[in-house]
Amino acid sequence: MFLENSSGEQLLLLRAKPPNLGSWSPIGGKLETATGESPFECAVRETQEETGHTITAGDLHLFAMIAEKAYEGQSHWLMFLFRCKVPILGLPPAMSEGQFGFFTRAAIEQLAIPETDRNALWPIYDQYRDRFVSLRADCAPGRPIAIQIEQVT
């Protein structure tokens, strides 16, 4: 979930737990498939739970879907990347997951961020945040991440 303030700065979380302990990254979470939760419902719920920012599905733009093979060498994931069209008004309070900060896109390049975010997530955001792209990513250990575009609209 990509959230920004009225100045266009990105909201990031300094992770206090693995994975990505000590790294800055956007908020996110896992889809509750047992309840039939949709990706949009998940994004709304996770935004509320992690930041206290109340949004609706209509406030979201789904800009990427990524099918990841062999994430951390163990499992396969389907990731949905959303951009919130409604600015978050203030910095959320720290929580058990970590503390928040607002950063310009240029400043993010100087932060401790996960390598997958630096090499894949942020470039996808930069290029497709106002469109939609479907991607495949092979994350097998010992090799660079191989990303293939399946469709762009």
Strand order of the largest sheet: 4-3-6-7
Mean pLDDT: 94
CATH architectural category: Alpha-Beta Complex
Question: By helix and strand content, what is the structural category?
Answer: alpha+beta
How would you characterize this protein structure?
- By secondary structure, the protein is α+β, with helices and mostly antiparallel strands.
- The protein has a single domain, classed as Nucleoside Triphosphate Pyrophosphohydrolase, CATH 3.90.79.
- The chain contains 3 helices and 7 strands.
- The strands form 2 sheets. The chain has a 4-stranded mixed β-sheet. Strands 2-1-5 form a 3-stranded antiparallel β-sheet.
- The protein starts with 9 loop residues before the first strand and ends with a strand.
- The model has no long low-confidence stretch (mean pLDDT 94).
What descriptors fit this protein?
single chain, 153 residues, alpha+beta, Nucleoside Triphosphate Pyrophosphohydrolase, 4-stranded mixed sheet, 3-stranded antiparallel sheet, 3 helices
